[in-house]
């Protein structure tokens, strides 16, 4: 597979979004169903709540404020639990104590692109947060994830102590919003077709096949 021939799937996502974790699983299932296609998946940043402080916010307080009470939040998250179980994800929402500001997570994902490790990093971030209830605002957690994914963890540790690429991530989020993206996950296929939300694998697969069948110039695939 080469960058020029691959069908691109640009995923706009936030690591504190449970539907984005579900969407990742559904995308993976879709890709397995169309093995004849060469697909390049790239991850792009979004923030569900940019008002969260850098240190995050107490999870119960966050949910109460967002949904107008914890009972309403519980009703909403029951649906997510059920959807997650269908995809083999056992969300441990009760273990999450902090709703994080995810800008540093997105910086980590950005840095992992050059080493072709985005998928591994995104996966580890989702698992750390949704399965283990880890605090994604802690640099040591992100450094450990970087090491587990195969990145240069010492370099990541240094960069996290700076504002390197913070403006770039914020600009990418602003561009996503300007393009009309208001919720995630959002799948942009071949730069031409948009799937908003965690669509079923068969829907994603159909979109991939349609995008491949209607391509006129592989060189026109979006590159960021």
From TrEMBL:
UniProt signal peptide: none
Keywords: Isomerase
Pfam families in alphabetical order: DSBA
InterPro entries: DSBA-like_thioredoxin_dom, Thioredoxin-like_sf
Residues covered by the DSBA-like thioredoxin domain: 8-208
GO MF annotation: an example: oxidoreductase activity
Lineage: superkingdom: Bacteria
Keyword Isomerase: yes
Full protein name: Protein-disulfide isomerase
Organism for this UniProt entry: Roseibium aggregatum
Lineage: Bacteria, Pseudomonadati, Pseudomonadota, Alphaproteobacteria, Hyphomicrobiales
């Amino acid at each position: 597979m080469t960058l020029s021939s691959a069908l691109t799937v640009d995923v706009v996502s936030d690591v504190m979004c449970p539907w984005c974790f579900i969407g990742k699983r559904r995308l993976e299932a879709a890709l397995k169903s169309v093995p004849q296609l060469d697909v390049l998946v790239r991850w792009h940043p979004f923030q569900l709540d940019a008002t969260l402080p850098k240190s995050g916010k107490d999870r119960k307080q966050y949910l109460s404020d967002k949904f107008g009470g914890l009972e309403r939040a519980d009703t909403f998250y029951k649906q997510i639990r059920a959807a997650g179980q269908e995809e083999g994800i056992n969300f441990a929402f009760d273990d999450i104590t902090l709703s994080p500001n995810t800008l540093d997570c997105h910086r980590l994902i950005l840095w992992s692109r050059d080493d072709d490790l985005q998928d591994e990093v995104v996966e580890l971030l989702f698992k750390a947060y949704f399965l283990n209830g880890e605090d994604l605002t802690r640099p040591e957690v992100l450094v450990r994830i970087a090491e587990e994914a195969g990145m240069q963890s010492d370099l990541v540790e240094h960069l996290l102590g700076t504002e390197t690429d913070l403006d770039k991530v914020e600009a990418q989020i602003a561009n996503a919003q300007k393009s009309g993206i208001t919720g995630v996950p959002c799948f942009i296929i071949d730069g031409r077709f948009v799937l908003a939300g965690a669509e079923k694998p068969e829907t994603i697969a159909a979109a991939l096949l349609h995008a491949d069948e209607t391509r006129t110039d592989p060189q026109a695939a979006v590159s960021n």
